[in-house]
Amino acid sequence: MLEVDKLVKEFGQIRALDDVSLQVSRGEIVGLLGPNGAGKTTLMNIIAGYIFPSAGYVKIDGLDHVVDSKSACARLGYLPERPPLYDDMTIEDYLAFVVALKVPDRRSQKVELHRILDEFQLCNVRGRLLRNLSKGYQQRVGFAQALVGSPPLLILDEPTAGLDPRQIREFRNRLFKLKENHAILFSSHILTEVEAVSDRVVMLNRGRIISDSDTALMGFKYRVITEREDKLTRQALRRVPGVISVEGTIKEDGLFAYDVTANIPDGDSHSIRKDIFFAMSKNNQAVLEFRPLYSELEERFFNAVSDQHREEANR
Ligand code: ATP
Question: pTM score, two decimals?
Answer without folding.
Answer: 0.80
